[in-house]
């Protein structure tokens, strides 16, 4: 395609957009709403992943030692393990104090100090990855001097299940929203093509190539997709960061820490921009193709 052909295609795209300005604006607005919802789900997915990661990072393995076991020997083994991110040794006296604070009644500890302390020494072990916890706990259980290990097996399994469900849900919803946006673009471009169907037929019979005919429509779809995406990204970023920063000032932020790291947020908006533009081109390609069969 030479320079003159490119100029013609660009001119035809601009003329068609202004000729159907209201329809183009409405379509761009609907695309913006669809992509804003899609982007909202993606941001929700990022925050849900962060929330699950916070839960996983707080999963600890309680390692109870046998009477007379040497904590230093076990400490050396834990310190050299690749799956162990950290550990804390809790002597039986500290464990008893912690138990009393948890129960809120120190009277029940009377007579249990010293040699009468029924609690064993223990280690609280943290793993790099939550999925490594079961295998790590089983391995530590086999160490000399370890009586029993406990890590809340049901919690770890439930966290994994919930994470899998959320990922599947976000994938399905994102796909449906993307298909809906493509359908809107296809419908709009098809209306434009119908209005110029005779022109397309004449150009085809005169020997114009399919790409020469198709290119203006591709540009129309890409412009509408890009415009809608920019509007969606601007509105979504404004709302998201306002909500995120307001949550950080509330007590709720202790449990839910919104992701504000641009290294994780920016790819979502860039992806939406590319997706919207690409969907515009794909929608145009699909809608024009049937009218080129003459």
Automatic annotation (TrEMBL):
Q: Which organism is it from?
A: Dethiobacter alkaliphilus AHT 1
A Pfam family that the UniProt record links to this protein: FtsX
Q: Tell me where in this chain the ABC3 transporter permease C-terminal domain is found.
A: 172-286
The primary site where this protein sits is membrane
Checking InterPro entries in the record gives:
ABC3_permease_C, FtsX, FtsX_ECD, FtsX_firmicutes-type
Q: Which UniProt keywords apply?
A: Cell cycle, Cell division, Cell membrane, Membrane, Transmembrane, Transmembrane helix
A GO CC annotation recorded here is: plasma membrane
Protein location: Cell membrane
Keyword Cell cycle in record: yes
Provide a GO biological process annotation.
cell division
What region holds the FtsX extracellular domain?
Answer: 59-147
Q: Where are the transmembrane segments?
A: 21-46, 165-186, 223-245, 265-288
Q: What is the recorded name of this protein? A: Cell division protein FtsX
Q: What does this protein do?
A: Part of the ABC transporter FtsEX involved in asymmetric cellular division facilitating the initiation of sporulation.
Could you list the residue ranges forming a coiled coil in this record? Answer: none
Topology with regard to the membrane?
Multi-pass membrane protein
For the keyword Transferase, the answer is: no
